[in-house]
Amino acid sequence: MNDSQRTGKKPLPLPVSIGMIVIAVILAVATAIGNVYANKYSDLISVYFNQPTSKVVSAENETTEHFTSDYASDEEREAALGEIGTDITREGATLLKNENDALPLATGARISVLGQNSVDTVYGGGGAGSIDASQAGTLLQSFEDAGFDVNQTLVDFYENGAGKDYRKTATNSYGEGEFAVNEVPVDVYTDEVLDSFSSYDDAAVVVIGRSGSESQDLPSEPLASGYTYLQLDDDERAMLEMAAEHFDTVVVLLNTQNPMELEALESDDVDAVLWIGALGQTGATAVGEVLNGTVNPSGHLPDTYATDLASAPSMANSGSYTITNSTEAFSTNYMAYAESIYVGYRYYETRYEDVVLGNEDAANYDYTTQVAYPFGYGLSYTDFEWSDYEMNETSDGFDVSVTVANTGDVAGKDVVQVYMQSPYTDYDKDNGIEKASAELVGYAKTGEIEPGESETVTVHVDKESMKVYDAEGEGTYIVDAGDYYFAAGSDVHEALNNILAAKGYGVDDGMDAEGDASFAAKTTVHTQDNRTYATSAASGNEITNQFEDVDLTTYDDSFTYLSRSDWTGTWPDTYADGTWTAPQEFVDALAVDTTTTEPESTPVTDTQNSSYGELNVSMLMDTDYDDEAWDALIEQMSVDELDELVRVGGYATKSVDSTQLPATVDKDGPAGISSTLVGGENGMGYPPEVVIAATWNADLAERFGAAIGEDSIALGVAVWYGPACNIHRSPYGGRAFEYFSEDSFLSGDLCAQVVAGAASKGVVSTVKHFALNDQETNRMGLAVFANEQTVRQLYLKPFEMSVREGGASAMMASMNRIGSRWTGGHKGLLTNTLRDEWGFKGFVVTDQASYSVFAYEDLREGLEAGTDLWLNTDNELWKLSDAEMTDGVVANMQRAAKNISYALSRSNAMNGLSANSTIVKVTPLWRWGVYALDGVVTIGVVALCAAATISILRRRKQATLTVQSDDADSADKQ
């Protein structure tokens, strides 16, 4: 009898036993690797699963809710926030054309909705600014809710018939994929669909859609269709012709986010054009209301719509250009802002005025063929008449008032826009200062004015608007001597014509329409002022040049920026033909600089200050930033705590035991708190910033910010990666939806309102992307060049306004360089300008820094310059050695920790905390799941190994017994 017979158990086949051991080893290794990554990315995983890592223990009956919701329930909050989203589209929808009062359509009209975008609607952009479109209302539903009878045969064709095979495409947030319009060709429409038009022929509503995303700009070169992405292609044009053949009324909806070339819509066959932007979750409702007249459109364009988008001077330098002799990580691309200040209307309107003044040959420039719709343009269903323009000087500026009367038949809102013209002097020309012929300096939206009623609005213009940056002469801000004009207009072109009329010009001088001098006023500065704005109004510090290293003329003295003194002679070419062998001085400067200023004495850490005793952050919630108690608090932190807080701040910040700083959850995006990138819960998804800009409604922008705050409280997201206020430098910017406008003042004013509204609910808004991140192509490490006047007056102004007027307590550094230096490592930007000039108190966080390939976002360089927090989810990344953790690094970390702690002490992260509270770390549920899985796997591994081992031993024993038995049998035979 063999062993298996005696035991009743048969050994497993040897390959099975070996396989069990291999499986056990794989499970053990996989579990070990999983635990490593779980530890590395623990905060990110907690955010993804929406699980807290700490809790607050407070004294009984102690009131510690510092920021509270205005709503009694989640249902009430969600309904109210959805209404705000609808209001943004109600006020942002912009009527560009309305021949013969084609709009509004009659309630009950039988309509055919054309275009694949009618069922594949643009609700937002891609990437960080995306929203959860699965929760969004549809255009077709909004039309039905508005009382229209919608052609369902056509709807079914797009959703289920041959039309379903045609959908626009765009790149994803990683730049993967391709852009294509893919409109349904007219020969695909079936006879059944064409026949259905006759039963739904009150109007054709044609929906044109375009979108974008972070990481890639829209293609400005022709696609396979032969057209650029922002032109109407042949299939769209054919669809419009088909609509004109079958319908007497054709209405076009522009469900788009960038300016487009719209010459095809100027045809008499198109009766009305309404820009609706992207819709967010609830904006679609407003579109039906606008079409049926329940809502009178009051939006105005935040961008110039040129007939040829390539006519923008920035287009000469947009795209991907290479530095041939650089080997530094992410440092082989550059971009020259050769157009100087002449972005958007600042170019188109200024060159127009120069033609009128005789300073430019009319043969070189024809405004009427260059611009389809000027900046600020927008129509209404009613008529407004302005009167009683008046400008009165005050101690700090000018009050401009206008009476707006509704002379039409329906109630509506209007926008009064105020533009300033500065003198363009010989001093300016000698010192490289550029002046636009008109700059927006103020605006106001009326309330709803009933027919026959009027409203007088007053717009305050700060005298500081008159300053200009003089980099070459005084090296600071000056106010030129000369005449300054302030004019009101319904758009920039009308305001400029009013200024020209006040200067004595008319159509005989080349103007395209007579202006009205009664809507312009003049004030004269008799002596150039070099002192008033040479010191900061916010901090009292001296203002000096900070961006000479960003000016391309520093490295190439032959380089010329566009100047109105010679439009043709200075017109931008693609710098270095797109491939630049940079001076060695510049190439050397691209290297990361880890030099750290060492303090005079060793920083005090992990120690209580005897003058204050044990402090916690809650005790300092109302303590000024400059109070020494903050320094005493930060000295309580250990070096390890400082390091962890500053270095690992991606989508969350760490709690700090020694100071009782609460942990936070930090999330994108600018159109509403989003789970797109890191999971967790979504907040309400709103129409994006470009639609908010089109509202020209500062109060609504503040309401939007407060709405973000409501979701912040409900979802436990204290730090919001938004809003975003870069400039629409190029019409093809991939992230234009996420930014407000081509204009710095409109962008800055609305951004400031959003930040203030969010702060009222305790949100820390990280205004982004700071700064000159105005294209997506090569945004990681791109070296951007611009002169100091342009940097300050166009690209930094929105950020400055968000700080000085909105009270912003956080900024997000961009991923590009300015000059040779990463923005997060540029001390002139982050310390000398942001803090010392603007009076900023708070923290600067990097953009994405969770990967070692972003080596140029160096921890030591960033800390030295003024960056405080790394958007890094890897607990090991950026870790310095003991030798690298010098006194200077520790001192910089202490400054950073103070900035973070100060900003969070003013946030809703403090809800539940008081001076007597205690923060207790808790193990999130996912971590218990990992522990349980580890246990199960361990038991499984042990069981597999044990079973395999026992089986192998049995097999070995069985083999031994068999040999012995064979030997015995052989002996017996002998």
From TrEMBL:
A GO molecular-function annotation: hydrolase activity, hydrolyzing O-glycosyl compounds
Any Gene Ontology biological process: carbohydrate metabolic process
Protein name as annotated: Beta-glucosidase
Pfam families assigned: Fn3-like, Glyco_hydro_3, Glyco_hydro_3_C
SMART domains named among the record's database cross-references: Fn3_like (SM01217)
InterPro entries to which the protein is assigned, alphabetical: Cellulose_deg_GH3 (IPR050288), Fn3-like (IPR026891), GH (IPR017853), Glyco_hydro_3_C (IPR002772), Glyco_hydro_3_C_sf (IPR036881), Glyco_hydro_3_N (IPR001764), Glyco_hydro_3_N_sf (IPR036962), Ig-like_fold (IPR013783)
Key word Transmembrane present: yes
Fibronectin type III-like domain residues: 414-492
Keyword Membrane belongs to the record: yes
Family listed: Belongs to the glycosyl hydrolase 3 family.
Keyword annotations from UniProtKB, A to Z: Hydrolase, Membrane, Transmembrane, Transmembrane helix
Membrane spanning residue stretches: 12-38, 928-953
